[in-house]
Design goal:
By secondary structure, this protein is an alpha+beta fold. It has 2 helices and 9 strands. The longest helix has 19 residues.
Length: 134
């Protein structure tokens, strides 16, 4: 089966045009639903965190008991993150407009939308940051 390496960028409304974080997800097949892309992304980042236990880390959504820092999140005590609970939080965040998924600069509307997989496909997760005083 064909495997495609997708480059993904994390953006915030404060950093549009300049990715805050980039990484690669390996996907099999010729298309993937947004729900499955989010699942792959979340499970990959949780696996990396659980294996490396960095002091400061980035994830799509903030894990329970983690503190937000300037460059990501951190825990007061070392611990494992549950990928299923992170996936559930990510789906809830997508459904409540906590972040948008952009494919080749076009917003994806639903979790069941299919993304055609090509190596040149640009995928961005745009985290919406509330305006201060707004």
């Amino acid at each position: 089966m064909l495997t495609t390496s997708l480059n993904i960028s994390d953006l915030t409304t404060a950093s549009i045009g300049k990715p805050e974080h980039t990484f690669t997800v390996h996907v099999s097949g010729d298309s993937i639903s947004v729900r499955e892309l989010i699942r792959l992304r979340v499970f990959q980042e949780v696996e990396v965190f659980n294996n490396q236990q960095p002091t400061v880390f980035r994830m799509l959504v903030q894990p329970s008991e983690a503190e937000q820092t300037l460059n990501g999140f951190r825990f007061k005590k070392s611990r494992q993150v549950n990928p299923e609970s992170q996936f559930k939080k990510a789906i809830e965040a997508f459904e409540s407009n906590g972040f948008l998924v952009l494919v080749d600069d076009a917003q994806i509307e639903t979790l069941d939308d299919e993304i055609a997989l090509r190596p040149e496909t640009n995928i961005a997760f745009l985290k919406l940051v509330p305006l201060i005083g707004g």
